[in-house]
Structures are given as structure tokens and as C-alpha cells.
Q: What sequence folds into this?
């Protein structure tokens, strides 16, 4: 799924084709696969709340409308990312634009959006997290977001500490492999 | 840029490791750790989103659009009118009629523009905004019996990147405007001929915006050139 990521197959072209045709199952599948990452980009640009949900929705509708221009043999993710970022910035600009006023042309609104590279990292990391098995993802969430220790996570989940440690190690190993394309390769001997 | 994540293979065996967020990944890259601690990374999308998306696409298709057909870009403030079944049945007939009208209009444009019915043009200087500070343009705007002709002589406006284009507008205000056409400038500076169905008397402002191809028909608000007849 990730461009250049090992072990992540691109979205099958038949899925893209069915998505373009408006097949309901395909629309749902594309949404399930990418809504989390699109949501992360949206929230990074416009903040949390209904506006971010609106951006997510609009992103997928725009993608569907423009699907005929998409090469079904390519990875859907970078394309969706580009649409999501543009949509989020346009939404933010629209929200900040005056809706009343005198006889003046449109007012260009300065938008300080996160850098393209930053939101792309967020998009890719979120995709990598969403691809983790549920048990491993929950350990990573409790560790990094909530700040729990391994024994605390073990208690919270009702599993042995050793299980938490092994899940954590596997999860981070997967993240390292999937996200390696975001940075230069690091030599094992360095 | 995010650097490669480094995993400590000793993590699993180290039962005495302090129980902190960074213990499991070993020497996790600081950027990645920060991303993983960001609530936006974990927020769940709207659970009703898939249903809403399916419904939105169904509604969009019900309006007569298909995903393989580029949507028409009507004038910006035009109200959205749902096309009923009756009108859909008439669509092929109307399409044929529209093609004939276009051919006739092309002939009429040649006839009118070559004739004496074109009023003296009004010259309007457009200056670049902060989005295109080096750009400038001169608009030669003339009333004709078939509409308002705008000859826009543009200099130093960067070519529109892939996925974007420029759109010219005649406007009354920030809220009310009519599209005069689109262009991309990928061939360098030059004169562009645009047409609008409103008059400069009623729409005395002229702007050029940078638009996204997938951004819908409304103005993006990203004005790169502006000028006024008043």
C-alpha cells in the first residue's frame, strides 16, 4: 500500500475499477482502507471536529468523481493523499473567507497549513498503524498516546507483560519496515 | 524528513526496561515518536462515513453525472437544480441541439466580431496579488451582440501546475461573479480570448483565480490577478 513500502501490496486495480464504477462494496472498501489516513491529514490541517469529517467525505467524493483520470495500475494512496491535502486546505480557506462585505473581489486568505512533507508523513504513519493487527496497534496506542508502561498495558489488557513486550516489538518492527521509505536507509553497521 | 525507525532487538528480553513509551521501540526515531503521540493519528473517522459516502455518490450519479465524465463547470454562482427524470429523457435531444447551437454560435462569433457591432474596448490593468506578485495583465474588454469579449494579455504568470488551472471572473462583489473561462499558461506569456455572458457595466471587477481540477465549479478564492473598471 505504501509507495515503496515493503510487504504492502498496492490496491488491486479491480478495486479501483469498481470504485470508479461506483460499486458500493468497492466504495466501502476504499473508505475502510484509507479513511483513517485521510482523516489524520484532515485533522492536521483543519483541526478536529465536523470540519475534518467534512474534508474526509469530500475527499472520497472528489476521488470518485475524478477516478476516470486515475491509472488503475498505480497506488491509490498517494493520489488520495494529494486530494485530501488540497481539500483540507481549500476547506480551511473557504471557512476563513468573509461571506459578507462590500464590492471587493474575492479575498485571498493566507493559510498556514503544515508542510506537504509533514502531512505526507502523517498520512503514511497512520496507514502503517491501521495495517497493524489490532492487538499490536492497541499496545502502540497505549504506549505512545496514553503513556502507559508495559505492566500498566498488561493490566489494562488483561494479558501477561511478556505478551505486551512481544506485541510491542513486533509492532515496531513492522512500522520500521513499512516506514523505511520515509527516510534514508540506515546501515546496520553504523 | 522522518528517518528510518531503529528497533532494538534487546527489547523483548529486557524485562527490566523502564516502562516508558519509548522502551518498546528501543531507539525509535524522535519524529516518529512525536507522530505516534499525536491524537490526530488515532482519531477514528466518522463511523457513518462509509454510508454517507455511498449515499453521496448515489446522489451524485442521480444528478446525471457519471464518474467517467468530467463535470461541467457552470458559472460560479449558478444555483444547483436537480435534474428530474423528464429532463433526463430529454438529455440526448438537448445534447444534439446544443451541438448545433455551438456550431451556429461559432459562425455567428466570426460574423459579429468581424463586423462593426463591437463597441470600443475598455482597457483594464490587472496586477498580481501576493500569490503571483510578478504577474500582470491587461484586459481589453468589449461588448458585442453575443456577449462580452475579453482579450487578456498576460505576462509573468507562472504556468498552472498539473491538476490546476486559471479561471477568469467578472464580478460584482466577493459573492457574486460569473466565470469568463479557463486557461493554463503552460505555453508561456500570451493573449487569451475569453467570453462572458454578463456586461462590464454590471460586473465591473475582473479577477483570475488558481483553481484545482477536482475543486468544483466555485471560485477557489486564490486570486492571482485582479483589476477593476471603476
A:
Amino acid at each position: 500500500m505504501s509507495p515503496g513500502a515493503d510487504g504492502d501490496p498496492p490496491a488491486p486495480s479491480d478495486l479501483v475499477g469498481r470504485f470508479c464504477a461506483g460499486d458500493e462494496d468497492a466504495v466501502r472498501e476504499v473508505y475502510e482502507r484509507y479513511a483513517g489516513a485521510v482523516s489524520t491529514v484532515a485533522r492536521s490541517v483543519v483541526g478536529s471536529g465536523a470540519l475534518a469529517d467534512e474534508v474526509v467525505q469530500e475527499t472520497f467524493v472528489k476521488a470518485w468523481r475524478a477516478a476516470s483520470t486515475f491509472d488503475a495500475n498505480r497506488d491509490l494512496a498517494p493520489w488520495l493523499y494529494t486530494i485530501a491535502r488540497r481539500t483540507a486546505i481549500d476547506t480551511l480557506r473557504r471557512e476563513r473567507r468573509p461571506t459578507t462585505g462590500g464590492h471587493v473581489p474575492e479575498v485571498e486568505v493566507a493559510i498556514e497549513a503544515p508542510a506537504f512533507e509533514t502531512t505526507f508523513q502523517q498520512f503514511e504513519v497512520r496507514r502503517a498503524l491501521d495495517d497493524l493487527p489490532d492487538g499490536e496497534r492497541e499496545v502502540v496506542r497505549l504506549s505512545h498516546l496514553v503513556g502507559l508502561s508495559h505492566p500498566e498495558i498488561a493490566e489494562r489488557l488483561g494479558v501477561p507483560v511478556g505478551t505486551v513486550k512481544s506485541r510491542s516489538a513486533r509492532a515496531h518492527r513492522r512500522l520500521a519496515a513499512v516506514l523505511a521509505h520515509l527516510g534514508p536507509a540506515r546501515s546496520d553497521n553504523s | 524528513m522522518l528517518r528510518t525507525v531503529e528497533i532494538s532487538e534487546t527489547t523483548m528480553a529486557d524485562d527490566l526496561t523502564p516502562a516508558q513509551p519509548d522502551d518498546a521501540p528501543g531507539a525509535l526515531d524522535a519524529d516518529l515518536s512525536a507522530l505516534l503521540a499525536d491524537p490526530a493519528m488515532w482519531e477514528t473517522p466518522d463511523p457513518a462515513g462509509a454510508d454517507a459516502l455511498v449515499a453521496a455518490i448515489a446522489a451524485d450519479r442521480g444528478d446525471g453525472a457519471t464518474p467517467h465524465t468530467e463535470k461541467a463547470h457552470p458559472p460560479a454562482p449558478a444555483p444547483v437544480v436537480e435534474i428530474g427524470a423528464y429532463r433526463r429523457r430529454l438529455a440526448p435531444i438537448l445534447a444534439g441541439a446544443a451541438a448545433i447551437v455551438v456550431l451556429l454560435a461559432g459562425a455567428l462569433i466570426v460574423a459579429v466580431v468581424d463586423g462593426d457591432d463591437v463597441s470600443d474596448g475598455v482597457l483594464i490593468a490587472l496586477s498580481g496579488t501576493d500569490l503571483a506578485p510578478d504577474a500582470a495583465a491587461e484586459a481589453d474588454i468589449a461588448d458585442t451582440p453575443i456577449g462580452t469579449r475579453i482579450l487578456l494579455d498576460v505576462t509573468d504568470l507562472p504556468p498552472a501546475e498539473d491538476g490546476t488551472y486559471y479561471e477568469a471572473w467578472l464580478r460584482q462583489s466577493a459573492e457574486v461573479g460569473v466565470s469568463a473561462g479557463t486557461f493554463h499558461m503552460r505555453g508561456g506569456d500570451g493573449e487569451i480570448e475569453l467570453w462572458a455572458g454578463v456586461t462590464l457595466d454590471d460586473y465591473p471587477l475582473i479577477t483570475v483565480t488558481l483553481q484545482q481540477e477536482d475543486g468544483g465549479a466555485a471560485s477557489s478564492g486564490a486570486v492571482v490577478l485582479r483589476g477593476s473598471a471603476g
Q: What stands out?
A: Residues 1-10, 99-105, 184-190 of chain A have pLDDT under 50 and may be disordered. Chain A is about 65% helix and 0% strand.
